[in-house]
Structure formats: C-alpha cells, structure tokens
Write a structure and sequence with these properties.
heterodimer; A: alpha/beta; Aminopeptidase; OB fold (Dihydrolipoamide Acetyltransferase, E2P); 2 domains; nine-stranded mixed β-sheet; five-stranded antiparallel β-sheet; 18 strands; B: alpha/beta; four-stranded antiparallel β-sheet; 22% helix
C-alpha cells in the first residue's frame, strides 16, 4: 500500500486538510472507492477504513491481481467531520453537490475538481453515499439512469437490491453523476447508517466491495456469493407520508416484510402522549426505507416500500 | 388579503406556513394582470424583506393607482429567516435547488410544489435575492441565456445598475426562476446588497424599478421615476478575482466604483505575523460590482468581480 495526497486545503486557523488516497497494486486504474464527502458520513468512513485494512492484508498475501490498481479515499471532508458539520467550510457547501468542480473556483469546487481529476479515469467507481433524508435503508446499490448505467454490473456486489434512480437537476452535481459522465462505471452503496457505526451492515458493505472486485478479476479472494439482487426503479417504490407531526414511534424497520393494513408506526402528541396518527401499510411489501428520528414533521416520508415483494 | 398557500405541521405546536399577501382593490379579478414578488428563499438574504414592505407601503398610500394584482411572498423559507440560516433548517438543503418540487415528495418538496402551483398564472414574477454574507453586490438582474431575450425588456425597466446574462447558479436548473420560466411564468432574479442586512438605498432603487415594470404592464397608474440604463453583460465581460491564498482579506477599495488597471482592491494578510500574503489589484478597467465583506478567506474564495468593457 502507498498513500498519495490528492488535494490539500490550507486554513489560517486550522491545520491543513489533506485528502489522501490509499493505493493497492500497480497498473491499470481498476477500481476507486470513495467514502465520506459529508461530515456526518461516519459509517461511510468506517467502511472504507475496514476496506483498507482488508486490502492491506490481501496485498501482503499477493492477492491483488497483476496489472490492477485499487484506490480507497476514506475521507474527503475531514474539516466537517472534526467539527460535526455536514458540509464544508464557512459557506457550508455540500461537496456532493459541487461536481464536476472548477480548478479556479471557490474551495469546495476546487476540491471536487481535484477529486474528479484523480478518480475520473478509473474503470469502476464506488461511493459510499448518504441520502438527504435521515433514516435507515436496506443495504443497496444505487445507480443513476444516465444511459451509461449497467444494472448487471451492479448485481455483482451481491447486495439485496439495486435501485435505478432517474436523476433530477439537483443530482447532476453529484460525484456519481459526474463519474458516469467520465465513463467510469459508477455505483453508490448505501448501508443503514450514517452518523453511527453499524458493524453488521459495515461488514456487509466491505464484503460486497470485495466480492465485486473479485468478480471483476481485480483481486483473488474467496467470498460468499451474496444475493441475486432485485433490481427496482425508484419511482416504483410506494412512499408513505406522515399526515401529522409529533413524536415518531416506528413499529417496523428497514427490511421487514409487511402486509396491507398492518400498523407500521404511530405519531404521538408530544405533550399529551396520545396517538395522533396510526400509519398503516398501504400495500404488501418490503420496507426499503424507514424514518428513524424521534420527531417527525407533517409530510415527511416515513417509509418507502417495495410494492408487493415478499421475503 | 393574506392567505396561507402551504402549511405543514411541525412536531410541537407550530406550523411551517408559507404566506402570500394579495393586494388588489378590484372586485372582478379574472381579467386583471398579476405580478408576483417572491423573496426569502435563502434565510440569510434579507434585502427582499424591505422591498416587499416598501412595495406594499407605497401601494397602500395610493390604492387608487393599482389596476391589477400584486402578490407578495416575503418568506418562502420562514424558518431559515427566523434563524438567519441560508438553507432549510430541518434538512440543511438549499430550497432554491428543490423547484419545481413534487406533490408526492417529502415535506419540503410538497412545499416547493405548492409555491410553484400558486405562482403559475402570474404575468411576471420577480425573485428577489440578496448576496450571501460574504460579498456585497450592486443591484442587478440575473438572467439565464435561455430566457434572456424574453426577459430583457422587463429587466431594463428594473432600475438596476447591471443586467448579467447567464450568470451564477441563481438562474440555473432546479431554481424557482428556472422552473417558473419553463412553466411559462416570465421570471427574473434580482440580486442586491449583502446577506443578513438591508441596504435601503439599493432597496428603494429596486422598488422604483418594480413600479416602472408594473406601470409598463398596466398594473400601476401612479407616478414612476425615470429608469437608469443598466450595464448589460454576458459572463465574458466579468472579471472574477479570487484569493490566491488563505488569510484575512482587507478591502482597500470601495464597492461600486470604477477601478483602473493596477488599482489596489485589497490585501490578504496574516494576523499572526503581520505579513501581507497577497496584494490584489485590478487586472482590467471596469466597475467593481462585487466586493468581499467577510474577511476570512481560503484559496479560491471570491474577493471581487469587475464588469469590464463598459463606457
């Protein structure tokens, strides 16, 4: 393994923020894995750290295929992580909305530009990403429908689901979108946590990446075959919204199989404790996303269900 | 008449409510022209608060002169304004990247959709922004190239110092202005002053312009003031000056005046050593229409913009 410094941010009042890439093997730029772009993506950073640990061991055992190179970038926005802020800098910019960046722009755009310059020529790009809504997901691979997406490749991670998402204008400034624009086969991997570490889903994510690298001939590694992924389109998920605000009492979690009419959650009056709304399953299906915060606003997405799918 | 156009319950005894004041003194409104003034999408941009107030006040002084409908939406992001928070406080997302929203989306997407729904049908919409807290701006209209020809006649009446075509992200996809223009509501973005403050001189200048536009549209029969001729610029005529280093920026020039090549605009200094790290001089003659106010800078931060090639 060797470490390269991809970009350095200088500050008057803080030590330099160094974006580091951990490189394994030599030769063709085969796969690049990116972790925390936002300061709350702790699980994403953790997964990358465990991946680096595993790849170090594989490299020491001569299991990186000849002529293949892998890079892992565990943290981009360490300034944000160190002070508990999601976004970067005093202007609080979202680095995952700064791509393709600009070499002569403000700092966030320079970071995005330098990162994309560095990772843009890998064949496969994997980002551990987070969603804008707080909550718990079933682990899945997400791809944008850019015309370059390849769900068959995404299946090779062996995660339960592959989700194809039609990009909205706001998505065109993400790493995933711009990576695909650079002709890298880009995948975003979601586990069930962001700010807290969940060992089980982190292990699943590390295994999924190693499985993919093995199947693409980049490493030699014996792994479980994983799932045959269920491919679904985001617009086909059934969203359940909160009709009232208050304290959220979730009764099902991500991955649960629910039947039509089952009580999924209650929303309680925050001062009197009475039930203000009982949320029922609108369909049979698997809970793909679940709200997990204690409070809920009216109109928030409480659950997303994979319609009429059973365990 | 004040109407709540969107309302969502918050967890404890409060609503997030978007309100619109419709000013109209006619009984039959069906055939009347309608102008909409929108502000407060970014909670740290307060210049629009004065403009909304002053427009309503002047109409109130001469109600007999109003021959159409004026809709005022002072605060699309009321929680953000209340907290001096640019983004939506609950999610940290930029509201002006969520349009046109979605009736089936999460809470804020529903709000964005309700705002757009209410604005559809207006003959003209003026989306009033201030600068952010970092730089100060002269009064200007920003137009995307796509809609520039349609909007230019209105923009010229706005009594601003400058019309900037194909400018920054404020006129790009997923913004309110872009979404409304696509839906057939002619919309222009006005930008002035700086964040977290109100410049009443600039505000009155823009208010005069709004009454000029209303007069031209046949909505106002009262007095108007002669419109000044704005400088009209494409991106090619704007010189961006960015910091070459981190430090403390000290402006050595006045905002909104003509600078000559070589003139000192400011210095980036080191407060620890007393050293001047960088001297910033004008590369071209022109109008210094943007000047940094916020002193702490990183490499790449915007310090000034000069409008060149003007008489």
């Amino acid at each position: 393994m060797h470490i390269q410094e991809i970009y350095t941010v200088h500050s008057v009042y803080r030590e330099d923020m160094k974006i580091r890439g951990y490189l394994f093997g030599h030769g063709e730029k085969s796969a690049c894995i990116v972790g925390s772009l936002r300061g709350n993506e702790i699980q994403q950073m953790y997964i990358c750290s465990q991946l680096i640990r595993a790849l170090k061991e594989l490299e020491a055992n001569g299991c990186i295929s000849a002529g293949k190179q892998i890079q892992v970038i565990p943290v981009v926005n360490s300034y944000g992580i160190n002070v508990g802020r999601h976004f970067f800098g005093v202007d609080n910019g979202d680095l995952n909305r700064a791509f393709p960046g600009n070499a002569y722009g403000e700092q966030g755009r320079r970071i995005a530009h330098a990162l994309l310059e560095n990772v843009g020529n890998y064949i496969y790009g994997i980002q551990f990403a987070s969603f804008y809504m707080d909550g718990e997901f079933v682990p899945h691979v997400r791809m944008m429908e850019t015309g370059y997406q390849n769900t068959s490749l995404a299946n090779l991670f062996g995660l339960p689901y592959v989700v194809v998402h039609k990009p909205a204008p706001i998505d065109t400034s993400t790493l995933n979108y711009n990576w695909q624009d650079e002709m890298t086969a880009a995948f975003s991997l979601y586990t069930n946590r962001n700010q807290e570490i969940d060992e089980q889903s982190a292990r699943q994510a590390v295994a999924a990446v190693l499985r993919f690298l093995k199947r693409m001939g980049i490493i030699r590694y014996e792994s479980h075959s994983g799932y045959i992924s269920h491919v679904l389109y985001e617009q086909d998920l059934s969203d359940v919204h909160a009709g009232a605000a208050g304290i959220f009492r979730g009764l099902v979690k991500a991955g649960d199989d629910v039947r039509y009419g089952r009580v999924m959650a209650e929303i309680l009056d925050p001062q009197e404790g009475t039930v203000r709304e009982t949320i029922l399953a609108p369909t049979d299906g698997i809970v793909f996303f679940a709200h997990t915060r204690a409070l809920i606003h009216q109109g928030d997405t409480v659950y997303r269900l994979v319609h009429r799918l059973h365990e | 008449m004040i109407k709540t156009i969107a309302s969502l319950e918050l967890p404890v005894g409060e609503h997030l409510a978007i309100r619109r004041n419709r000013i109209c003194y006619q009984k039959e409104t069906g055939a009347l022209g309608r102008i909409a003034l929108v502000s407060g999408t970014h909670g740290d941009e307060l210049e629009g608060q004065y403009i909304c107030y002053e427009v309503a006040r002047r109409i109130g002084e001469h109600p007999e002169c109003l021959t159409g409908i004026v809709d005022i939406y002072p605060a699309l992001n009321p929680l953000g304004i209340d907290l001096a928070n640019r983004t939506l406080p609950t999610t940290g997302m930029d509201m002006n990247r969520m349009f046109p929203g979605s009736k089936d989306g999460n809470a804020m997407e529903q709000i964005a959709a309700a705002v757009v729904d209410d604005l559809v049908g207006a003959d003209l919409c003026i989306d009033i922004h201030a600068s952010d807290i970092f730089v100060q701006e002269i009064p200007q209209v920003r137009l995307s190239e796509e809609f520039a020809q349609r909007m230019l006649p209105f923009a010229k009446l706005m009594n601003v110092d400058m019309i900037w075509m194909n400018a920054t992200a404020t006129v790009h996809e997923a913004t309110l202005a872009h979404s409304l223009n696509l839906l057939g509501v002619p919309t222009m973005v006005v930008e002035l002053g700086q964040g977290n403050s109100i410049n009443m001189v600039y505000g009155n200048q823009v208010v005069d312009g709004i009454f000029n536009v209303m007069h031209e549209m046949g909505l106002w029969t009262g007095e108007t003031v002669p419109t000044q001729l704005p400088a009209i610029s494409s991106d090619g005529k704007v010189e961006f000056i960015r910091s070459e280093t981190e430090g403390i920026f000290l402006a050595r020039s006045q905002h909104n005046h003509f600078v000559c090549v070589g003139e000192l605009i400011g210095e980036v200094v080191d407060p620890m050593t007393g050293e001047v790290r960088s001297r910033i001089t004008a590369g071209k003659d022109g109008l210094l229409f943007t000047l940094r106010n916020y002193p702490v800078v990183y490499e790449g931060d915007l310090l000034a913009r000069i409008l060149t090639d003007i008489d």
